[in-house]
Amino acid sequence: SSVLEIGNWLSNASADVAWRVPFLKYVASLFLAPSQYPLVRERAAAVLVTTRDRTVLPVFRQAVRNPDPQIRQLACLGMGALGEADAVSDLISLVNDPETDVQIAAALGLGAIGNDAALNALVEAFTEGSERLRQAIAETLADMPDEGYPVLYDAILDEEMLLRRAAVFGLKRVNSTW
Questions:
Q1: Given this model, what pLDDT does residue 178 score?
Q2: What Rg do the C-alpha atoms of the chain give, in angstroms?
Q3: CA-CA-CA-CA torsion for 110, 112, 114, 118, nearest 10 degrees?
Q4: Confidence of residue 11 (pLDDT cuts 50, 70, 90)
Q5: What percentage of the chain reaches a pLDDT higher than 90?
Q6: Diameter of the chain measured on Cα atoms
Q7: Rounded to whole angstroms, how far apart are CA atoms 44 and 71?
Q8: Measured torsion, CA atoms of residues 91, 94, 96, 98, in degrees rounded to the nearest 10
């Protein structure tokens, strides 16, 4: 715990502190260790995100290619939390992951990044993905008034029943009188 608490300080430390690189390597090794306890892995991922260090993105990029679905899932969420547009291509490929939880995490990551490429990938997955993925995407689109609301409006009028149903999950989150 005390080691991971140092991550909170790292975002405020200067870029040239001597312990920065060894600390990031250590936390990355905690995150990527195959036999790591899930809670420690989750905390390590959170520390990597809170450092706001650009050198963390390659760690998450390596993690999305890991065979462990929990590591891939946390990596997707981490890339979304970093908000790096460079991560969009990695997340797009994971929207089609065999694990549904990884697909959902990739969609949430794309929604957090929110650039045009990410939104286009979200809309495509919204129309073609599994039911759970569509519901998660609809809820993500509900958090984007300018871009998401029109997509949800169009989806509620679509011929496909599963798409309309997913859109309802998003629309119930919209706080509007219409």
A1: 67
A2: 18
A3: 0
A4: confident
A5: 75
A6: 60
A7: 11
A8: -160
The residue type at 160: E
CB proximity list for 80: less than 8 A, separation 6 or greater: 87, 91, 105, 108, 109, 110, 111, 112, 113
For 126-145, the pLDDT digits (tens) are 999 999 999 999 999 999 98
Structural contact between residues 129 and 139, judged by C-beta atoms closer than 8 angstroms:
no
Q: How many CA atoms lie within 13 A of 113 on its CB side?
A: 29
**Alpha-carbon gap, residue 124 to 162, rounded angstroms:** 14
With beta carbons less than 8 A apart as the criterion, state whether 84 and 109 touch: no
